[in-house]
Amino acid sequence: GQQLNQSPQSMFIQEGEDVSMNCTSSSIFNTWLWYKQDPGEGPVLLIALYKAGELTSNGRLTAQFGITRKDSFLNISASIPSDVGIYFCAGRNNNNDMRFGAGTRLTVKP
Amino acid sequence: GAVVSQHPSRVICKSGTSVKIECRSLDFQATTMFWYRQFPKQSLMLMATSNEGSKATYEQGVEKDKFLINHASLTLSTLTVTSAHPEDSSFYICSARRRGGLSLSSEQYFGPGTRLTVT
What we know:
Chain A is mainly β. Helices cover 0% and strands 55% of the residues of chain A. Chain A contains no helices and 11 strands. In chain A, strands 2, 4, 5, 9, 10 and 11 form a 6-stranded mixed beta sheet that branches. A 5-stranded antiparallel beta sheet of chain A has the order 1-3-8-7-6, with no helix packed on it. In chain A, a hairpin with a 2-residue loop joins strand 6 and strand 7 (61-65). In chain B, strand 7 and strand 8 (76-81) form a beta hairpin. Chain B is globular and about 45 Å long. Chain B is built from no helices and 11 strands. Chain B is 0% helix and 50% strand. By secondary structure, chain B is mostly beta strands. In chain B, strands 2, 4, 5, 6, 9, 10 and 11 form a 7-stranded mixed beta sheet that branches. In chain B, strands 1-3-8-7 form a 4-stranded antiparallel beta sheet, with no helix packed on it. The A-B interface holds A 31, 33, 35, 40-45, 48, 50, 88, 90, 98, 100-103, 105 and B 4, 6, 41-44, 46, 91, 93, 95, 102-104, 107-113, 115.
């Protein structure tokens, strides 16, 4: 099946720093989603992208749907301690099949 | 909103018994519900997809007789782990989606998960 390559696997940053993570695929998706998961909780939807080239923001979060439709990135600006968690990208194809990346574990040091 | 609840949040059961997990969409009608399994420090693994009133579609390698899924209404799906064994211990997460076009309101929203421990 379609594989999503999410990187980096983990990040250790200082509070206030900006963060960037991305997902790539060998196949085309028509929707890219970004979720955040806190320990022991279910993933929470952060941003949804539906058009190639689309750039969408949600507070300090910004995500883009790559022009080739095979990649997406998520940026977090001015990180704060509550940004800690695991961020998952997800791509959905035109068969409505959704695949998840392996996740990026973010640690923010105060 | 799009709120999905799961019950119970944690369950401990003895090997050989069955456990039922409920997933409810609280403020929308979920035409499709999904069940995922997640191992520590790993991504979500889709187990099955169910549409209201239809039989669930299981992913390859998931035993349908062991993981019984019932999607009896537009707001409720249940996952029953039958004859549970210690290797079934995991974090089970449901997700729900309403029928619609490309918009946030028709995306997949997740429940808080159920931690199953089989002793």
